[in-house]
Amino acid sequence: MTQTLPTPAQPLRIGTRGSPLALAQAHETRDRLMAAHGLPDAAFQIVVIKVTGDRIQDRSLREAGGKGLFTREIEDALLDGSIDLAVHSTKDMPTLQPDGLVLDCFLPREDVRDAFLSDLAEGLADLPPGAVVGSSSLRRRAQLIHRRPDLQVVEFRGNVQTRLQKLRDGVAVATFLAMAGLNRLGLAHLARSAIAPDDMLPAVGQGAIGIERRAADGRVAALLAPIHHAETGQRLAAERAMLRVLDGSCQTPIAGLATVADGRITLRGEILRPDGSEAILHGASASLADAVALGEDLARHLLAAAPAGFFDWKD
Fold first, then answer.
1. What is the set of active-site residues?
2. What is the pLDDT of residues 209-257, one digit of tens each?
3. 202, 312, 265, 214: which is closest to 12 by C-alpha?
4. Strands 264-272 and 254-261, how do they pair?
């Protein structure tokens, strides 16, 4: 059967959030599809969808309801046919998709590291006692307090530009962003340093663009197939399997990173108490064919090592 390609008269509609980073990721997806199929940019339409998570700036994601805040409206648009595919930051994606949707296309993964931004210090260890650090990530907050319990941590919601402005306004003397996001925005020079994963394990899926589609849409599946990066998909299969068993959300501080070498996949996972008082880290390896089982087994190991009430909040 001949594949039906999008045309300027019937463009492929790409759904995305409206932040500069989200748009950069949507444009990267469009550009890869253009190159893969020899199509003009007029054969694609970027559709900006306002999501609940972008509208809420006055409280933490934990208080607001978790990861689905960044995907719900976009997934609704996929399900009702308003868009043909959706471009996401994989670290923002719940581990289970709504019935009728699949997340099975990933672009080559960018830098997975966290970036340290500050005009006061070169790195976390250089911050003076009592310094105020801003972060909206529960994972980063817990990791930060675990390593430097003397520091003060304040809520830092908003997109990359909003958080940079808060730093300039003196709300905090340092903050963290993903190196991948800074790279995609051409802002890597703003990072004072990049934090090695051995020092701060990143979020599951950090640095990876995931593309969601309708499960029954074979045409879009065929269009996406040439731009799917198999190794990134294998790494995320392990990481997201771990997260799924851990029931990871924006209410639980979890980190994880898989790497691939010599036909094997290695996964490291970390869980932390929300107040940063304790962290449990474990790693294991398996064949690439067993990536999902590796993630599930590692998650069960972490849970077995955690005492009762490990993830409980003490507000």
1. 92
2. 999 999 999 999 999 999 999 999 999 999 999 999 998 555 789 999 9
3. 214
4. antiparallel
Tokens for 131, please give them: 């310094």
Give how far the C-alpha of residue 128 lies from the chain's centroid of Cα atoms, to the nearest Å: 30
pLDDT tens-place string over residues 96-115: 999 999 999 999 999 999 99
How far is it, in rounded angstroms, from Cα 206 to Cα 252? 16
Domains in the chain, CATH or no CATH each: 12-107+208-228 (3.40.190.10), 114-195 (3.40.190.10), 240-305 (3.30.160.40)
| Identity of the residue numbered 300 | R
- Give the helix ranges, DSSP H, for 148-259: 160-168, 179-184, 218-224, 230-246
pTM: 0.91
Residues 6+ apart with CB under 8 A from 99: none
